[in-house]
Every structure is written in structure tokens, then in C-alpha cells.
Amino acid sequence: MTVHSAPSNVPLDNVEKLREFVRRKAAAAKRGIIEVNILRREGQPVAYYITKVTYMNLSGYRYTGRCILPFDGGWPPRKDEKRIKGWFKDPYNKKFDSSANYSETDRPQYDSVFPQHSLSRLRREFPTIVESLVIPDSAP
């Protein structure tokens, strides 16, 4: 786990605002969002998200899962397919496709068909990792 301390500019009170925040960050890094959610852990909001980058020259992908949680002092914050128009989209905002990498085969219903695929494993295991986090009390 890598911890980054930074000012609180991540909207953890509204999942739609969080998705827009992650969408902009992902687009700036030429990534697309796959999943963005907020859970509650020990009474605190905890966000997790999965992004995907497509390597066109290598015909491959990289999925990255990140977790954002508040703490005192800052924020830490391959399935075969063809690249055809309309195939890739943002999973939460169909009008946004600037850097969308989410394809129809990234949908959760395919996880049971491809249980050992890296996205299926990340989607299955990441919420468990987030739920296992212990958030320390703020210093008095």
C-alpha cells in the first residue's frame, strides 16, 4: 500500500461527484474508469475505483485499483474485443467518451465467465481489501 498525504479535494460525500472527479483524473492520464464507488468503513467514507489503460501497440490493458480514505493529516488517496466505434464508453456517463476504455466485456456479468481474468479478480477482491482497512482514530 502506498500512502499519499494531500489536501482534501476528493468528494467522498457524493458518488456522482466522485465519479466525475475520477473521470477527469483518469482522462488526464489517458485512462478510463471501470468502476467507482463509496463504501463506509468504521463510520468513515472510503472510495475505491478501478481504471484501465489500453496499450494499442501491445494489444493489452492494465487495470489499476485505488482506494481513497480520510485520515488525520491528509488523504491517501484481457478478454478479446475489437476497437469499434461505440464499443468503448464510460460506465456511468454514456455521453463521456474522451478516454473511455470501458467496453462491453468489462461488464461485471462476464466475471463468472472469465474468473481468472485480472479485472474479474480485481473486482472480486478489491472491496474485501477496502473493507479490511482499519482507520485509526484522529490524534487528540
Rg, nearest Å:
16 Å
- How many strands, which pairing sense, and closed or not: the largest β-sheet? 3 strands, antiparallel
Question: How big a fraction of the residues is strand?
Answer: 25-35%
Q: Tell me, briefly, the overall form.
A: globular
**Count of discrete alpha- or pi-helical segments spanning 4 or more residues:** 2
What would you call the structural class? Answer: alpha+beta
For the biggest β-sheet, the strand order reads: 1-2-3
User: Unreliable stretches, pLDDT < 50, 5 or more residues?
Assistant: 72-83
**Distance between the amino and carboxyl termini:** 25 Å
Number of structurally distinct domains: 1
Binned, the helix content reads 10-25%
Mean pLDDT reading: 75
Task: Write down the secondary-structure element order.
Answer: HEEEEEH
DSSP E strands, number: 5
